[in-house]
């Protein structure tokens, strides 16, 4: 009898969690997701996974990364083969407003999961969602697995803590624990308070006549943007290795937010876009991260992973979805070569 693999995903209702759940279900996993109790449902990204056929392979559990007893009980009940820790307060700018909460969920949340593995079943494989924000004011370009961390936000600091504690538990207890150092990755499922989604939604709403300006912060920040569904595949590939390690996942290209804005407006047939943008200092970070670009050579070599969708195609994928929501895509693209 073939054993069905079981996976637990924290942050399953987020962008990455929903794509990862889809991927694992397609590979025959039984998928369990951790969801926070809320007075309103936030499950739009995973609603399509809930149907009669999924009753025996897809499960949701109320829980919170701040509650060690709850985490211990859920891990004990499920006894998963793999745990993917994607849960977080993941907005960098907001982490300056709620630093203690960010540290608790992002940093100590990883400790609670690792402790449950050590105490309950050291054979469970663990994936920690590390972040390019750990490099912060980067000391070298591009950044790879050996680049020193220099975080510039409470979020980045918390991610460094979680990354280091994952590496420590791997060495101290001999468990399978890997860190995926993912650079920015986007999709139509990106949250609306993230700059890329804010841009494409704003452009679509301008075309539809709903708004006349998009309010943004630092247009000169440079980021390495990839496509989220490809990045969750990299997560899975890390977990299939015989020996755990740390991997940078990136495209190797860097573009400014200004370039992202210009490309989105260009696709919508608007070249003189500057008049539609207003700078709002509220969206500046107290300490900025200027340039992030990743070297994914190790992932390519050891995981056989390379990015396929690059910058321009990514912007188009995201904008297309927003235009469709406003039913303006046909009107726009018939005028764009």
Word description of this protein:
- By secondary structure, the protein is of the alpha/beta class.
- Helix content is 39%, strand content 15%.
- The chain has helices spanning 15-26, 68-78, 92-95, 99-120, 154-173, 195-207, 228-239, 257-267, 297-303, 311-325, 329-333; strands at 6-10, 30-35, 58-62, 82-85, 125-131, 177-182, 185-186, 214-216, 222-223, 226-227, 246-249, 255-256, 277-279.
- It has a seven-stranded parallel beta sheet with strand order 3-2-1-4-5-6-11, with helices on both faces. A two-stranded parallel ribbon has the order 7-10. The chain has a two-stranded parallel sheet with strand order 8-13.
- Helix 4 (99-120) runs parallel beside helix 5 and helix 6 crosses helix 10 (311-325).
- The termini are far apart.
- 45% of the residues are buried.
């Amino acid at each position: 009898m073939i054993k069905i693999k079981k996976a637990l995903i924290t942050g399953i209702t987020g962008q990455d969690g929903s794509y990862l759940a889809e991927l694992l279900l397609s590979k025959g996993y039984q998928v369990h997701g951790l969801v926070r109790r809320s007075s309103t449902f936030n499950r739009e990204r995973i609603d399509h996974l809930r149907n009669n056929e999924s009753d025996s392979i897809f499960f949701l559990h109320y829980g919170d990364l701040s509650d060690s007893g709850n985490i211990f009980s859920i891990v004990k009940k499920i006894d998963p083969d793999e745990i993917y820790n994607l849960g977080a307060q993941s907005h960098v700018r907001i982490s300056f407003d709620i630093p203690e909460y960010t540290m608790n969920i992002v940093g100590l949340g990883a400790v609670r999961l690792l402790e449950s593995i050590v105490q309950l079943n050291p054979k469970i494989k663990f994936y920690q969602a590390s972040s390019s924000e750990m490099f912060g004011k980067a000391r070298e370009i591009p950044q790879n697995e050996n680049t020193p961390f220099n975080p510039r936000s409470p979020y980045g600091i918390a991610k460094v803590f979680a990354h280091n504690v994952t590496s420590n538990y791997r060495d101290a207890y001999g468990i399978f624990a890997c860190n995926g150092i993912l650079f920015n990755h986007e999709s139509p499922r990106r949250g609306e308070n993230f700059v890329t989604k804010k841009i494409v939604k704003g452009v679509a709403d301008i075309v539809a006549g709903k708004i006349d300006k998009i309010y943004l912060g630092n247009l000169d920040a440079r980021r390495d943007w990839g496509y989220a569904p490809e990045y969750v595949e990299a997560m899975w590939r890390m977990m299939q290795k015989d020996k755990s390690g740390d991997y940078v996942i990136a495209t190797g290209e860097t573009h400014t937010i200004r370039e992202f804005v210009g490309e989105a407006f260009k696709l919508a047939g608007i070249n003189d876009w500057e008049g539609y943008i207003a700078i709002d200092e509220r969206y500046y970070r107290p300490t900025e991260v200027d340039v992030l670009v990743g070297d994914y050579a190790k992932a390519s070599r050891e995981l056989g992973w390379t990015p396929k969708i690059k910058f321009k195609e990514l912007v188009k994928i995201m904008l297309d979805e927003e235009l469709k929501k406003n039913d303006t895509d046909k009107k726009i693209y018939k005028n764009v070569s």
